[in-house]
């Protein structure tokens, strides 16, 4: 099972490919896709969509997991990130991937057992769970890994038998 985990944004989109084989989770690859700061929003959205479409074709994930957004202060940021999230979900839908969404509380709880865990605690756990020597950087990539792991921990998947 391969999961594409996404931490949505307009300026930075964290992404990860995490697999689970024979009950063991492993990090395939992760990173952060950045769009030019001064470009218009529609141009940034197209770049994000094109990048994710290429990433999905390259890694052929089985499922897609993204973070649900929660903003309490900046409405403009919320609208822009919501637009980015829309094209991110569209890329997954167009690829025929099952889409799953998790709140920050669900991610923190599934990885640390504590819904108010801080970013460092979550990063410590992903490093520990995946037996990594260093925490994925930047934070957006680490968040995407955490989202993919949350999906693997919370979904019950039947064992696939190939003939």
UniProtKB/TrEMBL annotation:
The gene is ruvC. It comes from the Bacteria. It is an enzyme of class 3 (hydrolase). GO terms for molecular function: crossover junction DNA endonuclease activity; DNA binding; magnesium ion binding. It catalyses: Endonucleolytic cleavage at a junction such as a reciprocal single-stranded crossover between two homologous DNA duplexes (Holliday junction). Its cofactor is Mg(2+). This is Crossover junction endodeoxyribonuclease RuvC. Signal peptide: none annotated. Transmembrane segments: none annotated. PROSITE patterns: RUVC (PS01321). Keywords: Cytoplasm, DNA damage, DNA recombination, DNA repair, DNA-binding, Endonuclease, Hydrolase, Magnesium, Metal-binding, Nuclease. It comes from Candidatus Collierbacteria bacterium GW2011_GWA1_44_12. The lineage of its organism: Bacteria, Candidatus Collieribacteriota. GO terms for cellular component: cytoplasm; Holliday junction resolvase complex. NCBIfam families: PRK00039.2-1, ruvC.
